[in-house]
Amino acid sequence: MKLSPRTSPLFTIAHIVLAILFAFFAWLQRNDIDEKIYHNASSLDAALWLAFYLLITVLLIFAIFRTIPRWILILSMIACVVETVMTGPGLIENIVGEEEFTITQVSMSAEDPRVELSREFFGAVIALAGVLFLWFRNGKKATT
Q: Are the C-beta atoms of 49 and 62 separated by less than 8 Å?
């Protein structure tokens, strides 16, 4: 079975660039299990983020050659929305709380939960943007 690109060269390049970006996001998750960097580091949380970013990476490459089943994209969107709902309160506290808004603190540590929740919120929004890109690229060719 020979695979042939189903998209223009410009979109093929866009898919590859975005796939590299999401692979980089997945690679960054390795820090989330380092107790020297993160207070109360969660291996499960880091593994789930790594898997999700890798899923988007694989889907971006896969979409160059094939249409992605709509149910996979719907589940991915639901996961993104659930994550934004779970982390949104930390972002709101970061923005309107008594302490000054920050994403980085003095270091990239996660001792302040509102900072880590803000980062995860924006990570979920970026992931949702990636999934929406795939959704609109799939167009009406998507299957259920």
A: no
CA atoms within 13 A on the CB side of 85: 6
Domain range summary for the chain, segments of one domain joined by +: 9-139
Tens of pLDDT, residue by residue over 89-112, are 888 988 888 887 777 655 545 567
Q: How far apart are CA 79 and CA 52, in angstroms?
A: 9
pTM above threshold 0.90: no
Q: What are phi and psi of 143, to 5 degrees?
A: -110, 160
User: Could you tell me how far CA 44 lies from the centroid of its own chain?
Assistant: 16
Q: How far apart are CA 16 and CA 9, in angstroms?
A: 10
- Helix ranges (H only) for 29-138 are 43-65, 70-96, 113-138
